Structures are given as C-alpha cells and as structure tokens.
Amino acid sequence: MPLPYVLLSAAVSLDGYLDDTGPERLLLSGPADFDRVDEVRASVDAVLIGAGTIRADNPRLLVYSAERRAARVASGRPEYPLKVTVSGSGELDPAAPFWHTGGAKALLTTDEGARRARALGIAADIVPLGDRIDWRAALEHLHDALGVERLMVEGGGTVHTQLLQQGLADELQLVLAPLLVGDPRAPRMFGPGAYQGGRLRLVETRRIEDVVLTRYLPTAPGTGRTVTAADRHWLALACELAELCPPSRTAFSVGAVVVASDGTELARGHSREGDDPVAHAEEAALAKTDPADPRLTGATVYSSLEPCARRASRPAPCARLILDAGVRRVVTAWREPDTFVADADGSGVLAAAGATVLVLPEYEERATAPNRHLTG
Ligand SMILES: NC(=O)c1ccc[n+]([C@@H]2O[C@H](COP(=O)([O-])OP(=O)(O)OC[C@H]3O[C@@H](n4cnc5c(N)ncnc54)[C@H](OP(=O)(O)O)[C@@H]3O)[C@@H](O)[C@H]2O)c1
User: Fold this and answer.
1) Which of 42, 187, 333, 338 is deepest in the core (most CB within 10 A)?
2) What's the gap in Å between 54 CA and the centre of ligand 1?
3) Which domains does the chain have, with CATH numbers?
4) How far, in Å, CA of 50 to CA of 317, rounded?
5) Measured in angstroms, how far is the CA atom of residue 38 from the centroid of ligand 1?
6) SUPFAM superfamilies per the record (predicted)?
C-alpha cells in the first residue's frame, strides 16, 4: 500500500536533547530556521505531532507566512496543512490552541481514546484505529482516507523513535543547535531500541545562522515482506539507473542495485552497461560483487523490471544469477510484459526457490518510462 512520504523534523542540542525539563519550551533554533520550518510546513499536506508535544509545548503548528498560505490556496490546496496528532489515551486538553487555529485537524487514536476524546469535546476528525495504534495503519489512513502524500512529523521523541525504528521515515531533517542541556531527564529525539544497523545517507548540510541543518535518508532494506521507506528509495534509484541504458529495440532498459541488510550499497548496474550490448542490469550489478561476500545472503536486489526467467542472449537468466549469489529478497517495480518472452515469470522462479519478491506498482510508471518505445 502506498504511504505518505514521511519527513521527521526536529532541532536538538549538541548533546542530543529535544528540550530541557523546565516549564517553558527550550528554543533551540533562531528566526531563520523557524522560517525554514514554516516553508517546509507550507510544502506538505499534513503536519503531525505526538500528544506529548501538545501537552508540553501547547503549539499551534501553523504556516505563519501569509505569502506561503496564499501560494497554497493559489495552487488549489487548503490554506493550512492538515494538523494531525497521535494519542493512545485520548486524554487531551480540548481548549488547547492546536484545535482552534489553522485548518482541518485529525486525531489518530485507539477505540478507547476516541471515546475519551469525544467525551472531552475534542474538535477534530477523531479516527479510532483499534485497541492500539499501528503506525503503518495510521499512515495508510492518512494516505488513503485523508489524501496525505507528504507528511511532516514535528516530534516529539516518542513519535520520531517509533517511525524511524519501524522503517517508516523517508527523511530526517535534523537541526543541531549550539547549546547543551545535560539533564538525563530531558527528552531525546531518538530513544533506545533497534534501529537500522548501518549508516544513513547524508544528503545535505546547511548553515542557518548558528545552527546546522542536516538531512539524512535511511538506507536499510526491510526484511521479508515488510517494505521500508529505504526500500522505496532504492527502487527509485533502480528506476533512475534504467534511464542511463543505451536505447535498444530488442531489449528492455532496466536498472538494478544490490544492497546489504545494513543499508550498504554493494553494487549497481544497468542494461547494456559498458561495452556489453546484451548485459542485463542485475547481471551487471552482481558481476561487481564478490561472490564470497557474506553480506549477499542478507542482501536485497532492487530491479526496475522483474529479473528475467529466460533469456536468449546468455545461458543463465537473472533470476538464476540472483539465487546463485545467495540473495533471497528482490524488490521490483514492474512485472515483465510479453514483449520479448511469453509468460516470463522471474518472480515465480525466485519465489519457487524460497526468495521473497515484492512488486511496488507505484514505481511502475517510472520503470516503464525508458521503455515506452517498446511497450507503446
Ligand atoms: N526540539 C524539537 O524540535 C521538538 C519538537 C517536538 C517536540 N519536542 C519536545 O519533545 C517533548 C515531547 O516528546 P514526547 O516523546 O514526550 O512526546 P510525543 O512524541 O510528542 O508524544 C508521545 C505521545 O503520543 C502518543 N503516542 C505516540 N505513539 C503512540 C502509539 N504508538 N500508540 C499510542 N499512542 C502513541 C501517546 O499519547 P497518549 O499519552 O495520549 O497516549 C504518547 O504519550 C517535549 O518536551 C517537546 O518540547 C521538541
């Protein structure tokens, strides 16, 4: 199921705290960064905070720039992004400014929390999600029922921690402020627990007055049939690689990436790469890996088109090469049409050998784009 693009945004002290323990909210960034946050808010469909942040900070969570609000309206969007909060208990102050400023509001809660929130008179679309809040279900609801394509999450630590640990965060926008809190009772951006093993990808650093904005993308593939935000990023990269292929009238243009379970890219490739006019993308990528690399057994292959099951140009089709490399997880955007091979079923070959194959149809259009001359 498609989910919103989830952007986690926060400012932290040099020692990693989101706030101190005083009664007032600790101001970590300055006017220029608050204006940047305002710009990001204006760009998204919804902003979300946890109930803890409403209780601690009493925020209004608005787009403050009149020009940005006008631009939203001019482009056919609501003046303000939807304001969303998450609360298991439903124990919220109905008089908080969060409910009485800006545009539409939604409260994602449990069945019990919904009863309490209704009894309290919370002025929002109250969405009961069962006995407990499952984040994937919550995000699906935002996407499917409320039309949220881009979601900015503005804390607090409990919410950020769960979204990152569950592989649901597409991007982190972290502002590092030059001050120290030093109080272990203060909230941290990320609490203890299981995170992805390897390194996130740094995509931007920007000085803004005396703070530094850093943007990171998670990199670790999901496990089994669970799709993470990183799975979508890698598949998008495979689709980009497909655009690099020398055009052909007799073969598809495909991109592929091999990624270890900790998010390390092991290799990438695309069709007809280098001087090889019949090279397939997965073949080209796997040829760059060391067959003895133990990371291959836990790796995921991302391929814009499902790996081939039969081919005329070489004895081993890509499904076989993937299995022989020890890879047991494949994410693809597009099932192979009958253009060159009837009933090609690389996914079936892989699955029959015990591999997990995931098809993310929301990327099919990008995968087919460099092949329009073949598929019409
Ligand atoms: N520096 C920054 O950029 C920044 C940004 C935002 C917040 N903050 C700070 O962060 C602190 C608040 O963080 P926090 O971790 O205490 O609170 P939080 O993450 O804002 O909210 C936690 C609350 O959200 C609800 N919740 C979250 N996940 C849930 C789940 N899976 N199921 C059910 N309910 C769930 C629960 O509400 P119920 O208790 O109602 O069940 C939980 O108590 C404040 O000090 C604030 O100032 C700083």
Assistant:
1) 333
2) 8
3) 5-217 (3.40.430.10), 229-375 (3.40.140.10)
4) 49
5) 20
6) Cytidine deaminase-like, Dihydrofolate reductase-like
Q: How far does residue 12's CA lie from ligand 1's centre (Å)? A: 15
User: Which pLDDT value is given to residue 313?
Assistant: 84
Ligand 1: does its nearest atom lie under 6 Å from the Cβ of 48?
no
For residue 179, the Cα-to-chain-centroid distance in whole angstroms is: 30
Give per-residue burial for 116-139: e unless 16+ CB within 10 Å, then b: bbeeeebebebbbbeeebebeebb
Query: CA 16 to CA 12: how far, in whole Å?
Result: 5
What six digits make up the tokens of 45? 């469909």
Closest C-alpha among 234, 235, 229, 269 to residue 253 = 269
Q: Is the CB of 11 under 6 A from ligand 1?
A: yes
**What is the per-residue pLDDT for 95?**
98
In the chain, the amino acid numbered 367 is A
Instruction: With a cut of 90, say whether residue 50 has pLDDT above it.
Output: yes
Asked whether residue 220 carries a pLDDT value surpassing 90, the answer given is yes
Q: How far apart are CA 208 and CA 40, in angstroms?
A: 15
Peptide bond between residue 348 and the one before it cis (omega within 30 degrees of 0): no
> How far apart are the CA of 4 and the centre of ligand 1, in A?
20
Residue with tokens 């699955």, as numbered in its chain: 351
How far apart CA 373 and CA 166 sit, in angstroms, is 40
Q: In the predicted model, what is the mean pLDDT of residues 166-193?
A: 97
